[in-house]
Amino acid sequence: MMRSSQPLTGTNGRRCKEDEKLINATLRPGKRGYIIDTRSLNVAQQARAKGGGFEQEAHYPQWRRIHKCIERFNILQESLIKLVEACNDQSHNMDRWLSKLEASNWLTHIKEILTAACLAAQCIDREGASVLVHGTEGTDSTLQVTSLAQIILDPRCRTIRGFESLVVREWLQAGHPFQQRCAQSAYSNSKQKWEAPVFLLFLDCVWQILRQFPCSFEFNEQFLIMLFEHAYASQFGTFLGNNENERSKLKLPQKTMSLWSWVNRSEELSKFQNPLFEANSLVIWPSVAPQSLQLWEGVFLRWNRPSKFLDEAQEEMISIIRYN
Amino acid sequence: VENVRLLDRLSSRKAALGTLYLTATHVIFVENGSEARKETWVLHSQISSIEKQATTATGCPLLIRCKNFQVIQLVIPQERDCHDVYISLIRLARPVKYEELYCFSFNPKLDKEEREQGWKLVDLSEEYNRMGVPNNYWQISDVNRDYGVCDSYPTEVYVPKSATAHIIVGSSKFRSRRRFPALSYYCKDNNASICRSSQPLSGFSARCLEDEQMLQAIRKANPGSDFLYVVDTRPKLNAMANRAAGKGYENEDNYSNIKFQFIGIENIHVMRNSLQKMLEVCELKSPSMSDFLWGLENSGWLKHIKAIMDAGIFIAKAVAEEGVSVLVHCSDGWDRTAQVCSVASLLLDPYYRTVKGFMVLIEKDWVSFGHKFNHRYGNLDGDPKEISPVIDQFIECVWQLMEQFPCAFEFNERFLIHVQHHIYSCQFGNFLCNSQKERRELKIQERTYSLWAHLWKNRADYLNPLYRPDHSQTQGTLRPQMAPCNFLYKFWSGMYNRFEKGLHPRQSVTDYLMAVKEETQQLEEELEVLRERLANLQKSQLNDNKIKSKRQDRSKELGLSTSNNSLANTPQEYSNDLKSFPSRSPSQGDEEDSALILTQDNLKSSDPDLSANSDQESGVEDLSCRSPSGGGCLPSEDSGKDSDEAVFLAV
């Protein structure tokens, strides 16, 4: 599986032999490849006017292009704001709850992202075909797809260390602009420009899969919530900056502590372990039916309801397994 | 009928080809095929509707919708056969006599004594004693011993000490269907009680001295409070409209020391339509998130569930926190009243959160108090306007509570699903007819078997591993929040999409933890044995003996190991445009079954009572599969490169 940004075909239908050679090199003998474009066909076509575009069939004959539209990042922040508003409505009125939830489109985004990731995984696992994923810049929806696909395909990504590596590889090193995206969250009054809960959506998707396969992940929900928090505000330098270049210029490794160094200490790690984890070597396929996707209460209703009863359930689970 | 196809409605895979059988009690589809002779059994009692669809080139489609939310799509090659099947099923699914029902032919091979014992398992007089009555404030009345006062009430009711027979009879004449105020729940800690009745026949201005005395008596039976709540569970408009028909509600001016309250739960017709709309959403093919959420909200279903729950919460609070007694009624006092009293009791008393206690609760508030099972759930062919998912809603309230309080219930989700299943199945006699009187006339206990005994025998399958009798959640009253953002009402896919396994979590936490607990228990027993042995050996001082301890592979035994089965975890439908993308790899062949993802949950009779003989229940049965009950068994996957995937055990 490869990731990139959009090809700069422009309105003249430019081609680039080196680009073609590069991605053709990943094709397995006798097999075609799939390009998963996270924009709708329309959007991809319109991108040509600004110098961007998509891979033309004539130039990439061995690749089949699939458009799996994932909403552009600027829409996502609005979604988050609406969702959080809906969740904070203290009225006892059930009438509008579901329609407010629907109006935020949050779960729709989850469904879109998971579906695209499952498709990418399916190409690889079922077809044995190589995959190239890109959107526009290759820094948002692209990364959601590639990282979730790996969680589906590779059991190592479901271990704590494996997941940490995944985040480092597919988000930090890949250049997801954390500093821009996580500058403000849902409550800010000032005007939003580059903010978007792209990483939170990714974590939510991971939680959805975790809920469907509760025994297949070495980490628990708390781990994901912790990562969400640190992406927005942290005493560690891990999520600072927009890419490796900036981090190196800011001398972060010298001036700050790494989140991982703290998380991976055994006394911290024990809080994030899933007592139900049983290592398996499987590919896990989540259901993306609406009935299977749920609101992530642990994040969105976290401060509204007493977590006491659910915490007690967790403790009970841990004690059953420990005693055994 | 041969060469019938059973379609999988959700996935686009090939249909199963087989033979359709109609028996006196079941519809059975047996799949052709050498190894896995998969069978699908559906009880006629479960059939809710049959739809004959337009004939196509492939044959005549027949859609069977069941009361347990199973939906079966058949395609019958010949139109004439299809029509025959259709007509037959219509008749079979609408019995006219009770004797046609399965419970009268069902034979679990128990002797007469065992059958009797089964019926004695749940004893209501024991239950009232447990509550603390009769006592100084409450007594048993046999005024209804021949059903002479109210034919939908039981023969024994509990009333306040100061309620004489005269008062009871007088009050009954002033209540719809003669359903006078009677005790549902007594809280011995503070003497507060929950009583239930039907609406008073007050019209605009009628009064009844005895009825007013009755309410006084209930109030006086609680010396800790100087007033009584009267809760009318109907919307105010409906209650007011009833006055024009000579019925209505209690006027605070006429009844001394009452505080009157409307709660606003809609009637059976609204609920029937609400369920219908929600099921339509469930039947949508590949709905978007918006379609689903809109559809769900439009049905109003969760709003109704919340209304019932909120009523229960109000009453529980009144009893537990304020120490005030409550009289609950709706119109006839057998639908909303039952729901609300049960929910309140469950919140108040941890006993009802145990397996036995739950059975007792249903027996008390639903069976004994004359909930009209026959009319509501269509045992016999009747008026479609009487059909309504009343007890289903109560059961869902319980599930919603289980999700919020995971340690508080002794039973698990499967227990609730099986209870619901059997309310419609008529395999047991508990939920026949409309009243205790009718059941006794039919001699139900001598001619059928009790569900409670059956469930009790299998209770190991129904336990919640997180339940501990000494846990804080299992003590005292449950106090759920009321705002939707504080108590998230979820769509119960385990019930309404019960048979679409692909939609559910593929690994069951409950089953995993139960397996761990079983293993722990075995290890403890083994430890005990070894300890004894050690003690004996030390006593006899025989140094030569070698202690052999069998280190069995525990995990394999309990099926925790991934190498122990033929289940597969396969991709769902991720692409609507199938032409552009195959959902199956060519190397896989035709053997995948993406919807029938098995979990240990399924193996343990999610479709109950599947023994390999004629006493079978609806669901998917695989006779060749090692598991004795339920679930489809998938043919083993190609062992090639997918050995990892093929051995996925959903524990």
From TrEMBL, chain A:
<dbReference type="GO" id="GO:0010507">
    <property type="term" value="P:negative regulation of autophagy"/>
</dbReference>
<dbReference type="Pfam" id="PF06602">
    <property type="entry name" value="Myotub-related"/>
</dbReference>
<dbReference type="GO" id="GO:0005737">
    <property type="term" value="C:cytoplasm"/>
</dbReference>
<dbReference type="GO" id="GO:0019903">
    <property type="term" value="F:protein phosphatase binding"/>
</dbReference>
<dbReference type="InterPro" id="IPR030564">
    <property type="entry name" value="Myotubularin"/>
</dbReference>
<feature type="domain" description="Myotubularin phosphatase">
    <location>
        <begin position="1"/>
        <end position="300"/>
    </location>
</feature>
<protein>
    <submittedName>
        <fullName>MTMR9 protein</fullName>
    </submittedName>
</protein>
<dbReference type="InterPro" id="IPR010569">
    <property type="entry name" value="Myotubularin-like_Pase_dom"/>
</dbReference>
<dbReference type="InterPro" id="IPR029021">
    <property type="entry name" value="Prot-tyrosine_phosphatase-like"/>
</dbReference>
<comment type="similarity">
    <text>Belongs to the protein-tyrosine phosphatase family. Non-receptor class myotubularin subfamily.</text>
</comment>
<dbReference type="GO" id="GO:0046856">
    <property type="term" value="P:phosphatidylinositol dephosphorylation"/>
</dbReference>
From TrEMBL, chain B:
<keyword id="KW-0378">Hydrolase</keyword>
<dbReference type="InterPro" id="IPR030564">
    <property type="entry name" value="Myotubularin"/>
</dbReference>
<feature type="domain" description="Myotubularin phosphatase">
    <location>
        <begin position="118"/>
        <end position="496"/>
    </location>
</feature>
<feature type="active site" description="Phosphocysteine intermediate">
    <location>
        <position position="330"/>
    </location>
</feature>
<dbReference type="Pfam" id="PF06602">
    <property type="entry name" value="Myotub-related"/>
</dbReference>
<feature type="compositionally biased region" description="Basic and acidic residues">
    <location>
        <begin position="545"/>
        <end position="557"/>
    </location>
</feature>
<dbReference type="InterPro" id="IPR016130">
    <property type="entry name" value="Tyr_Pase_AS"/>
</dbReference>
<dbReference type="InterPro" id="IPR029021">
    <property type="entry name" value="Prot-tyrosine_phosphatase-like"/>
</dbReference>
<dbReference type="Pfam" id="PF21098">
    <property type="entry name" value="PH-GRAM_MTMR6-like"/>
</dbReference>
<protein>
    <submittedName>
        <fullName>MTMR7 protein</fullName>
    </submittedName>
</protein>
<dbReference type="InterPro" id="IPR000387">
    <property type="entry name" value="Tyr_Pase_dom"/>
</dbReference>
<dbReference type="InterPro" id="IPR048994">
    <property type="entry name" value="PH-GRAM_MTMR6-9"/>
</dbReference>
<feature type="region of interest" description="Disordered">
    <location>
        <begin position="543"/>
        <end position="651"/>
    </location>
</feature>
<comment type="similarity">
    <text>Belongs to the protein-tyrosine phosphatase family. Non-receptor class myotubularin subfamily.</text>
</comment>
<dbReference type="InterPro" id="IPR010569">
    <property type="entry name" value="Myotubularin-like_Pase_dom"/>
</dbReference>
<dbReference type="InterPro" id="IPR003595">
    <property type="entry name" value="Tyr_Pase_cat"/>
</dbReference>
<dbReference type="InterPro" id="IPR011993">
    <property type="entry name" value="PH-like_dom_sf"/>
</dbReference>
<keyword id="KW-0443">Lipid metabolism</keyword>
<dbReference type="GO" id="GO:0046856">
    <property type="term" value="P:phosphatidylinositol dephosphorylation"/>
</dbReference>
<dbReference type="InterPro" id="IPR030572">
    <property type="entry name" value="MTMR7_PTP"/>
</dbReference>
<feature type="domain" description="Tyrosine specific protein phosphatases">
    <location>
        <begin position="299"/>
        <end position="343"/>
    </location>
</feature>
<dbReference type="GO" id="GO:0004438">
    <property type="term" value="F:phosphatidylinositol-3-phosphate phosphatase activity"/>
</dbReference>
